[in-house]
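sorry for the late reply, my laptop died twice this morning and i had to redo everyting from scratch. anyway the thing you sent over, i finally got around to it. pasting the sequence first so we're on the same page, its 173 residues, then the predicted structure underneath. double check i copied it right bc i was rushing
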Amino acid sequence: MEALRAIALDSGLDEELKWGKPCYVIQDGNVAIIQPFKEQCGFMFFKGALLNDPDGLLEAPGPNSQAARRLIFSSVAEITKMKPKLRAFIKEATKLEKSGAKVPVKKTLESRPSELEEMFRQVAGLEAAFDGLTPGRRRAYILHFSGAKQSKTRKSRIEKWIPKILEGKGMND
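ok and here's the structure:
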């Protein structure tokens, strides 16, 4: 993390602590964040999808990620080897942030599974509580519920999360 931090600070970015991690900003806009993992470390660009990456070095952090892209490192030697490319990515990401560029986000409205609609009819206040969640929390629930192949499994997943939804909380709260 120290090697990545030194590169980011040397690139003229300001460091702030966000989400409990070192985040690098310019003009109050998030450019990148260091992500510590057990045996690896990630350097994630918030608008990484806009970066020029002809070698395919940047990876999406998850299957549903639209904007963020990151580099994963397992050693300081890997960071040292990638230093020129990392600096180039940081420079480009900084220019993008300064320009106000936006990542075109696909408005994918995942449909609510029928089991969830049925549960809305059975549990008072559930639909209002669900609709009161942030779009990201609603989407996370829908992806989790819809990920089950069998209706029985979808229903049991929904039943498990009803208390959290009624509390206005997401899956990771």
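Helices lie at 2-10, 76-99, 114-122, 126-131, 135-146, 151-166.
thats about all i looked at so far, will dig more tmrw
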